[in-house]
Protein 1
Amino acid sequence: MKLVLKTNSANLTAGIAKDIGSRLKGGEIIVLSSDLGGGKTTFTQGLALGLGITEIVTSPTFAVSDVYKGLKLELHHYDFYRLGSEIGIMKQELEEVMDNKDTVCVIEWADFVKGSLPESRTINVTLDRQKEGEDVRLITIENPDNLQYAIDAELLEDIKC
Ligand code: ADP
Ligand code: MG
């Protein structure tokens, strides 16, 4: 299913993500795409809240990956923007982690692993800036039918495009 939403604040983007986070069962992979500053980490922060994570989620720009413990699930947050020679190690780590049922993986700048992600467990989220305002984003959420439980379309009805 494909859903296009319009948000006009970082808070609203985080709120959308929080609701999704609260619905996850584990084993899902969320691929976030946008330009720099598009809102991928903001979305991840909301998702973390939904998973019951109280720690502050930051951009793992220097660490490549960070792990946070939620109430039931662990969040593995990857940012491959600056990935260099660690590419092989990271691919291997990701493959092991994403098969863990108690884990949710969020990946920013996922281009180099995109082809190897299992489609049936992957939710693709794209954030696009809009000319109409600095804080406006179109968020496109694409998920396979079997992951529909993660999206409350009714809740999002008012901001649907
Ligand atoms: P990325 O991880 O994609 O580089 P960040 O989430 O780190 O982006 O940064 C997005 C910036 O844009 C933050 O400063 C955030 O507050 C701001 N922002 C403004 N409006 C929005 C919005 N509607 N959704 C998400 N972020 C927004
Ligand atoms: Mg980021």
Note: The two ends are 14 Å apart (CA to CA).
Protein 2
Amino acid sequence: MIVVLKKHSAESSRLPIEGYLNANHISFRYVDALGVFVIPKNQQLNALEKFDGIETIIPIQTPYQLTSKSYKNKTSFAVNDIAIGENLFNVMAGPCSVENEDQIFATAEYLSSLGVKFLRGGAYKPRTSPYSFRGLETEGLKLLSKAAKAYNMSVVTEVLDGSLIDEVATYADVIQVGSRNMHNFHLLNQLGKTNKPILLKRGFQAKVVEWLLAAEYIMSGGNEQIILCERGIRSFDPSSRNVLDLGVVPIIKELSHLPIIIDPSHGTGLASRVTPASLAAAAIGADGVLIEVHPDPSKALSDSDQAISFDEFGTLLSKTKTLLAALGKQTDTETPVLNSGRL
Ligand code: PEP
Ligand code: MN
């Protein structure tokens, strides 16, 4: 259950309610940034109705509360003037890893020439083997941010660990939590206290309820700017790197108010499958895509099999626009950037 306090009376209303809940041993969390009490156990609390300053009491039957659709119909926010979670299909693209200045600048130049607003790139990379390329770290963040600024794009990049949040937040416009970290509750908790949008990838073995509870960690810290990202789940079948669960899009739309985008690159693991999977993402109602693009895919230092070339990306984007037009939607690549002051 969520008890929403009236905005103007949040402080004066909070204490008597808190006193009542404590006296009755009812476990709760007060989320100051949202002005709400979350009372996770499903119980009858008619007594709460007598307290002043309550806007509404929302009964919620699921373990996730703030991320539930019962709490809110839709979440949308802007990243450097580009709307997320509105009727706009966000296109985020770039290399798996930032490798050097030429690579990231060439990618940013090409993508921005097509109107792409979000430049992705890993500087701290979670790699299965410690001997694989693990990213340029601070240098990678600096190059990524320099390239994004030069082409008026927003940065999407991963944080691997809580100790890196401050550093990553200095350069990122959207902080990515990777699939492996979806269960890192301490990290999620810390991200809940930041004011940066968080792109939360689905753990490759996570149930939908676990994914929404991971998002709940962030939201219960007061940070509502969350983008869910489906990136494929692990199966018994080696014919695909992961199984891209596109059916999860309408499920999330039913259960939650959070925007959901699709990562067809990790979801399929092979360049030739990225375009069909992206089109399917647009058709099934996703809010966007996150795509790995490289100037020379065969030479990519990480995830080279799934990186698409500039030409392939251009074709993907134009097909996506055509498909979305038939659905009465648009990509954000067609949106002019208002905030040209960043340059
Ligand atoms: C990535 O985006 O490059 C990445 C490592 O993704 P995931 O966490 O989905 O494997
Ligand atoms: Mn990758």
Note: Residues 310-326 form the longest helix (17 residues).
Protein 3
Amino acid sequence: MTKNPSEKAEFPVSENFTDNDIQTKSCLIKLSNEQGMRVVLTNYGARIVSLIVPDEKGNLADVVLGYNSISGYLKSDEPYFGATIGPYANRIAKGSFELNGRAIKLDQNEGDNHLHGGKNGLHDVIWEVLAEDKQRVKFEYTLKESVSGYPGNLTLTTEFILNNRGELKIHYQATSDKVTVINLTNHAYFNLSGAGSGSIGNHHLYLNADAFTPVDPEMIPTGEIQEVDQSPFDFRVEKPIGKDWNAEDEQLAIADGFDHNFILNKSSKDSLELSARVTDPESGRVLEVETTAPGIHFYTANALSGKDIGREGVPYLPRTAFCLETQHFPDSPNKPLFPSVLLEPGQTYKTTTVFRFSW
Ligand code: BGC
């Protein structure tokens, strides 16, 4: 049964939805915990709008980039802030791949390639609010067969749970009535000193990854698995994010910073394990990321243009936020050696990511 969302959003949204639909159908949901954390979400894109975390002195800051109104999201150069991304997060080369001998053709929304679910990606639709209370909300969306070229009718849920241990947990689930490919993530842009407070170069990052997947000039994985050892990509011992981001390195030059999929070290497939830790020496805030996914896409917001003025009234500039997108490897449908992203009818895709804050 659909519950009434706790609060009407004061903002409109789009897709197959007109602006008017969006005005009437979008809503805000507010979660809070006993530690003083507050999370605001919207059903527009099953999206984190705001994530307020105390620091060691008890000062509160919003640690994710975003806007105060849906028109902010609609006008933004970056449509993905905080949103659920899919059906296939990141890139599929030429928007095409073969599925059981059949050629599949998806939207090409970034040059020749398919990025983040294409023109009708999950970030740009209104999800239904299935259930809601003070510490959880579950969104559901059904993507009809052929939208953006994906086979089958796909039913998706994204559930956010905020507990009293500083954790925001995200559970993703999906089923399809035809075989398809799936890869869901969340695209929050974090700055642990507070959104809009400048470079994240001094945040320290630990990544539990011995290798990453290098990309070609179109940001498509070449298919190689590259060891991080003795390279700027080695975060196995924590170091400032900015320490090597200007190093002379072909991969950093292609992406203008970090924008790469790291292959997570796992004790067993699909286990929920610590994948990343970010520490902000200035505020004392720490973010730990656990995930069941095989990869994490570490992105230093290289493409933020500065044209977008965020809710703090300051331009969102390159490298003033980081993303840790827990997911399968980009372009897996064309890379038989990467872990499978197939979803068969009768199966349920399930992944979990935990963002754990301490201060
Ligand atoms: C991609 C970037 C892209 C960004 C868009 C990231 O997941 O890897 O290349 O610019 O999303 O928001």
Note: The radius of gyration is 19 Å.
